[in-house]
Protein: N5-carboxyaminoimidazole ribonucleotide synthase
Amino acid sequence: MTSSKMLPPGSTIGILGGGQLGRMLATAAAELGFRCHVYCPDGESPAFDVVAARTTAAYENQSALAAFAGSVDVVTYEFENVPADTAAFLGEQVDVLPNPHALAVSQDRLSEKELMQSLGIPVAPFAQVDDVASLEAALETLGRPSILKTRRFGYDGKGQVAIRAGEDASTAWEAIAGRPAVLEGFVTFAREVSALVVRGRNGETAVYDIVENVHRNHILATSTVPAQLSAATSDAAREIAARVASALDYVGLLAVEMFVVEENGAERLIVNEIAPRVHNSGHWTQDGCIVSQFENHIRAIAGWPLGSTERHSNAVMTNLIGAEADDWAALAAEPGARLHLYGKAESRPGRKMGHVNRISPKVG
Ligand code: AMP
Structure:
């Protein structure tokens, strides 16, 4: 069920998940006069510091979920591995947005790719892999190098392994613990970009400027706008994102990650994956756009008109990973830089501790 009413300020937004995305959603919601209630199994969650109400309970705890649903006016989530049953259970009591079907599709790399194919959107060549025999058959077709990825619970390079010339199928299969997977042909891309689309309850859609992403050790390092892309390719990327959002009857912010392949001087887009939530590659919008991805997600699920996605500045977002956040004092003093820290007590290698948006006058 999704009602078409506009939630008035003072309403309570329920957020499943308590990481930095939940924290930034909650502060954006507070700017519009909403209260937030975060539900997260981890009592040390960064979002807990900035919200009106918190529940620490497992996603399978039905009495805690029922109480949570009864205390909020709409439920959303800040990460995609919320169990589908949890979303469905809550959906019987309260609006859950984006809808649980969109969540289920993006939790499974195979259904994600099948959706893209059904919409005529290019993806890397792939094959379903359920055991060593099907992996061997897939390697015959797709060749080496290729990348074996678990269908579920993969993020920041976890749950995936490259299979190079001379490397064998069973070692790769063991490396992903024999979980249902897809094998993907290796894409020689010129760059990686993402399209951030927001879709309202009434189907209104807006897309942010396409952003160019650089990963280091499988973790996003920087996001830069404008991306180095032709106007036609940018338009095509926006159109793909809007098409996916409509097909899923999506409400909220959706990220679509793509590879840009250059061949004979022409650019081609290949969708890598989608994320049914606000996204790290959209953090630049906090300081580079009139209305950020976080506020627009809140507006969308609250049934409000979308805010302007117009970019007013050039921006480079740099993630602060592990000890990089120890430079906070120097970053705070840097002209043109806006520092965002997540309030995480413990710094660990590879852990996202904050980010900095470096803003300059709009060019391009
Ligand atoms: P993913 O977990 O699917 O987002 O993949 C993480 C990163 O691995 C991507 O951002 C790419 O840099 C790289 N990657 C993933 N799939 C492929 C592919 N099929 N070909 C080449 N590089 C890939």
About this structure: The chain has three domains: 12-96, 125-185, 191-361. Residues 124, 147, 154, 157, 160, 184, 186-187, 192, 215, 218, 272-273 surround adenosine monophosphate (CB under 6 Å). The mean pLDDT is 96.
